[in-house]
Batch of 4 targets.
Target 1
Amino acid sequence: QVQLVESGGGLVQAGGSLRLSCAASGTISRANVMGWYRQAPGKQRELVAVISSGGNTNVADSVKGRFTISRDNAKNTVSLQMNSLKSEDTAVYYCKWTGSGGDYWGKGTLVTVSS
């Protein structure tokens, strides 16, 4: 079992910045992928950015150049620095952990960007 705790969501004006963090605990396999997905009202959940324990990243085209994903393997944390936020970034952001034990999701944190 892996538990994920997210933090850092909130309300921000367009053009502003937010930083999301997610901490994993439990049975953590050494090789894993951590990252962020989001779901806007009425839309399907979509990948935002993920990063492997080896440092390989996959970032959605819609956020490239604005969002940066990073992780601390020693602390089992992943962060998402979000800059130049747009109203279309408004969504619930979910942390996801994938490893030998399967997929685990956080409860989500709401990011609201006002225009």
Target 2
Amino acid sequence: QVHLVESGGGLVQPGGSLRLSCAASGSIFSGYAMGWYRQAPGKQRELVATISSAGNPTYADSVKGRFTISRDNARNTVSLQMNSLRPEDTALYYCNRAQTSPVTWGKGTLVTVSS
């Protein structure tokens, strides 16, 4: 049973946009804050954005004003709209619970920002 499935990554040029999606099982989604995380080559995994069960978002300073997190509680999905992408945004992006111990990580979706 796969509990977290990320999609939407790809190769984009600097300044471009991507929208990532995460499909989660109801058992790990409903009633929980969710977050997007990323891990760049040679770096630790970092928290990019969170959204509470009520829809209140938070963002890392590095992505404020460029990324928007959203969720659809009826469909158990969380999305990340990424605009004005920079090479330093290149990473494997994951979704998981936030503010709570994460469940087993999914495979992630790769975002590469390069000219």
Target 3
Amino acid sequence: QVQLAESGGGLVQPGGSLRLSCRASRFSLGYVAIAWFRQAPGKEREGVSCISTSDGRTYYADSVKDRFTVSRDNAKNTVYLQIDSLKPEDTAVYYCAVPSNRDIHCSGYRSVSNYDIWGQGTQVTVSS
């Protein structure tokens, strides 16, 4: 079956950095948009970033703009999320996801209902 797998999470102090990875099996990430979501305890799953297959266009939630950077390495079939200047409020499980319509664009990337292939998530904890 088609699968996504996230990695790279961990425990980091405020102001630190992490690079999360999203790797795919049985399909190519180069043909679809990939979104990143996160879910903190007691909160809804939140779309934070997306990268399209065309024009290299990227999108970010206001809460993470200028601190998060999404990128692709199609040769490695991997999408990355670089997270800098981490804050305690960034603590969450981070997921990558593929749109249900296999869109090459990031239309509706903030909506969980628009995605049907998810990884298992990777935990990011920001604490002193």
Target 4
Amino acid sequence: QVQLVESGGGLVQAGGSLRLSCAASGNIFSIYDMAWYRQAPEKQRELVATIGSGGRSTYADSVKGRFTISRDNAKKMVYLQMNSLKPEDTAVYYCNRRWSNLPWGQGTQVTVSS
């Protein structure tokens, strides 16, 4: 059963921007803290950004000042605006609940060329 569907990834040059979207199905979406994660090849999945039910956000140091997480509870969507992209941002990006993760979706590939 598909619960999380990420989209919006692609290939961009360093310094470029992408906006990722995550559609969450079912459950009481609005009460959960949500997050974006990423996983580069042969690396562990890492937490990129979180957003609380009230809109408070946190970011990994590596993306702070460049990425912005947001949510639309009515649409049950989470977004990640990524600006000033760097090659080291290359990874598969996933959304999920910050706590009590759902099964992982397929993610969306972000590739940043130098």
